[in-house]
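Crash report, auto-generated. Payload:
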Amino acid sequence: MAPLTRTLVIATALVALSACSKKPKPEDLPPPPVDNSQAYDPNANAPTGPVKGSQEDFLASVMSDRIYFGLDQYNVDEEDQATLRSQAQWLAQNPTARITIEGHADERGTRDYNLALGERRANAAKNYLASIGVDSSRISTISYGKERPVALGSDEAAWAQNRRAVTVTVQ
Amino acid sequence: MIRFSSITPRMTALLALLLATTGVSHAQLSVDVTDDSGTNALKIAVPVLPTSQNVATPAGSTQELGQKIAQVIADDLKGSGLFAPVGPAGLPAISMAEVTAPVFSKWSAYEALVQGFVRSAGGDNDITVGCYLYDTALQSELTRQGYVVAPKDWRRAAHKCADAIYARLSGESPFFDSRIAYIAESGPKDKRVKRLAIMDSDGANHRFITNGQSIALTPRFSPDYGSILYVSYVGDRVRIFVYDIGTGKQRLITESSNTTFAPRWSPDGRWILFSMAIGGNTDIYRVSSNGGTPTRLTTAPGIDVGGSYSPDGTKIVFESDRSGSQQLYIMNADGSGQRRISHGSGRYATPEWSPRGDLIAFTKMAGNFHVAVMTPDGNNERILTNGWQDESPTWSPNGRVLQFFRTSAGRSGASQIWQVDLTGVNERRIPTPLSGSDPAWGPLLP
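Recovered output after restart:
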């Protein structure tokens, strides 16, 4: 029994690792495996992955949930296309799933224009997904303009992280 | 009543100077913050308003009100940048008899003198506030006004007195007795709570309208102060609501599955200008304030957003990136005759047409963000402020002062509401209980 236990624990750790691989941050990594084979009860602790079709499943399956844009830009470049293709693949595997794409801008713009820019970015991602076969009725968009930054600094590195379109599954 | 005095020519000269600087473009790209030296400001004494009989009212005793009203008058005058008021603290008390017969020898150090009184029968009865302005050199009365208000509205009497003084000495229209709608901000930068709120032009009588559960943005008072247009994220959508101040009810201005934002009233309140994004393309539309089918005014394949009517309602200044970057454009109210007016360096945004019609205020993004003005033909650009990020100017009812919001950089960055006059010299922060953004100045109160 002991070897099996270790295999399961490691497999779980690997899933968690792959989900985090786009933004490796040491503090987000799972704790190292603990040998708890003495306490192991196979009936009480069956392996659990993310529920198919869930946001967790989405995050674990796609390259990234977001794409990034240059200053005042809204074009979907090759790297973004690869990310969106991985999202389209997941949508194909989960045909009843629906998504919302949230468009964002950095803080270095005026409020109304940034709302319009967030709309542009969310729609650029939506249009690409539609162009590779995702039914556009499954995709809604919303712009947050500069209202919801993820990086809080006021420098180019932070602004680059905030100019984004984020795909969120609708539960 | 209106007699020639030694003060009026001086103030007229001051205003002429203020107007003349319109022609000196780019003269003050770096602007001093507050210049309170008062070198050009008129020295005016504001002693406590005495009361004939000290009685209690729900807003305090008439004696206390006399002190508080004098303070509000002095603060208003100082905030305009044209006056160097002294008092009420540190000035000698005056008797009721002196109000109409000043002892000018007491006030020889000042060029002007404001006196007044507070009278009430007590309780919930209205209070009467007298307001007198004197030229101390000529020892003559320049104006006298009286206001009868409910005790809770004592600040309005003070603002009206300050307005009467400002108007008499500057020849300009008044503006103190007016209100501001804005967005109160709290919480961390990535989860900021943004609530619709209203207050007097000096930050007093503050009141929250929304509870902060949904993001609220870009409010605008209707010209009659009956309602407020604003953007709400309620229901996880971005839509424009009109909130009725009297009933507390709100409704959508248009039924649409698309994002609607950047709402603006026409000067007569009959129309609402707004921006709508369809498939990522934003254009400007107009709809009757009673509802109905919107009319599309712009068709350029770019972001056309915002907008502000000329005071006569015939033209609209708006923002577009159709040239590749944000610039200012003017069109006729029906959308025809679109032409670009901004041609300087940097990007231009958030144009607001002055209620006087003579200037357009806007945000200029060139490195830092500045509040600036230009004439409607696109000439005479003048930068008024220089913060890290100053944006979204809104005009005082008389078109002589602007409020805007100033955001600081970094993780703890926050926004505050500021005010600046057209010289760019007199700048001050408007006190709000929380951080604040998106100020929108309403007209003079009816």
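Post-recovery validation: Chain B touches chain A through 43 residues (CB under 8 Å).
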